[in-house]
Amino acid sequence: MTTPQQRNWPIVLRLGTAQTLAWASSYYLPALLARPMASGLGLPVSHVWSAFTLALLASAALGPFAGRAIDRWGGRPVLTGSSLLFAAGLAGLSQVQGTAGLMLAWLVLGIAMGGGLYEAAFAALVRLQGTQARASITGITLLAGFASTVGWPLSGLLEAQVGWRGACLAWAGLHLLVGLPLNLALPRAAALPGPTTTPAHPPAPLSATAPPAAHQTPPPPAYTAWVLAYVFAATWFISTAMAAHLPQLLVASGATLAGAVAIGALVGPAQVAGRLLEFGLLRHLHPLLSARWAALAHPVGAGLWMLLGPVAGPAFAVLHGAGNGILTIAKGTLPLVYFGPQGYGQRQGLIMAPSRVAQAFAPLLFGMCIERWGSGALWVSSGLGLSALAALLWLRGGDR
User: Fold this and answer.
1) Mean pLDDT over residues 260-276, rounded?
2) Pick the residue with more confidence: 339 or 310?
């Protein structure tokens, strides 16, 4: 007889593979194609990054609506639609001729990101598996943790062989040939009653949870959602800032460019290692405890770096990467633990919306900090990390 975990692995593999494709062809795309794209269009590279920021803001605005749709109809139709939108946006991006077309294509990609990245995948799992979705959420992040490892070399190879326009078309084709069938293969979830009928068990409002049964813990305080929104926004700001500027930071602290690239390459494997740790040892702990330790990792690594200099760069990269990997899982599991599966998708979209906004502006704002303070900008990221830890310490649950 197969166990529930064994039955869930086909879903995890499908969603994890589709998520790897979605992240590689959207969030990680500009790192390799922004400059060739700007050069080919005769535009400043800042125009491409501005279009990418627009996409992230659109994904923040659309996230709650996508989550609510998943709450009602399940993840299959929403994620399938996102595959089509990813393909349309990338195909459109391959044909743009100026700033207006560039902005429009990235806007379409932003809409796809709002219904096709982690938050939507987590909501789809919770819709199918309820409170037992933690292991599956971890499994998806394990697979999609290789999105940059796969996406960056593939984008670079495609750009070298067929140009940036051909690379965008190739990614669009992969969404139609790979992502779309994978999302279509997800199990159907029974549709919930519409707004004109009264469900037997209506979802809880966003500011609270459904009344607890006798064996359940009391509902969390009303501020819990706001605290989680801040924690995720602060930590995602750090993650995005490091993804954009880590080599520059290392060079500013005295490392060589080759050494900075080598140290930066440790972040990806460390993220996967952190997720493996969560999947093994830490899954027996309350996810709040895991999140607290993970939030502390970046400030500890930054402290070592500022104390010892570039020699501590590898330790910083490993600590930052591992903490970021665990926090990615916490973004899916903590709302589930505190609020339960009812209304999870819409609530998750609302909680994560500030994170998308922080993510959109992190490269610009942290870049300004580096220009002004050099490696001293780590005081800013460390302060944000410690504030996130303080907020997590304020929450109840992990100590019980």
Assistant:
1) 81
2) 339
